[in-house]
Design a protein that fits this description.
The complex is a heterodimer of chains A (151) and B (83). Chain A has 151 residues and is α+β, with helices and mostly antiparallel strands. Chain A contains two helices and six strands. Chain A has helices at residues 3-8, 55-74, and strands at residues 21-25, 29-35, 86-97, 106-117, 120-128, 134-146. Chain A has a six-stranded antiparallel sheet. Chain B has 83 residues and is mostly helical. Chain B has a single domain (5-82), classed as Orthogonal Bundle (Non-ribosomal Peptide Synthetase Peptidyl Carrier Protein, Chain A). In chain B, helix 1 packs antiparallel against helix 2 (40-54) and helix 1 (5-13) packs across helix 3 (69-82). The chains are: A alpha+beta (151), B mainly alpha (83). At the A-B interface, loops of A face helix 2 of B.
Chain lengths: 151, 83
Amino acid sequence: MTKEEIVAKLPYADPFLFVDRITEVSQTHIKGEFTFKDSCDFYKGHFVNFPVTPGVLLLECMMQIGLVSLGIYLLRDKGFDLRSNSTVAMVENEARFYKPVFPNETVTIESDLEYFRFHKLKSKVKMLNQNGEVVCQGIFSGILKPGDAES
Amino acid sequence: MNQEIYPKLTEIITPYLPEDVDPKSIEPSSHLVNDLNINSTHLVDIVLDVEDAFDITIEDDELNKMDTVEASIALIEQKLEAR
């Protein structure tokens, strides 16, 4: 599976897709990027007169790359399709924020797998800004809920 | 009922109980999900802790065998014997 195919298989679309590209992927690691464009609607309200990316969206971005994209890669041969026969849910996140992310910043997300068993994926995920500074890091986990796919 | 496995297992389960479930209410017949209200993600954590504590491996298709405390003990015993 190519890095482009991973992005194409994500169950998200505009305005809730927070993955521009995947740059590295292996059985235990994934790396990707996203640019929070200043045209995003939420900047009008977060905050009034001071646009800054909401932390909850940083978490979402980290999970879309660090958990969902990695999970899609790990299950590439198993017949799951998050757009038709199965879904995912966030189950745990324990994160700390260190820096703000302003409009038009590109962030890099790195995720190192702790385990993926019984459909639960747990990973250490880190978000870096363009200066290589840690914006947010934490331990996240999500669970795959299969529909009619074979496990 | 295996007297060595039982206390070790209840010790593993306890931190994953919801706040409103008293650890003292754990019984051999307790169903992990229906009686103890443990959610599916914590069930995975319990299995992983069990694997570490007893040095065994539980296969993906065996997760559903760990429905009650006594069924979990039976599976752990079976794994320990097969080791």
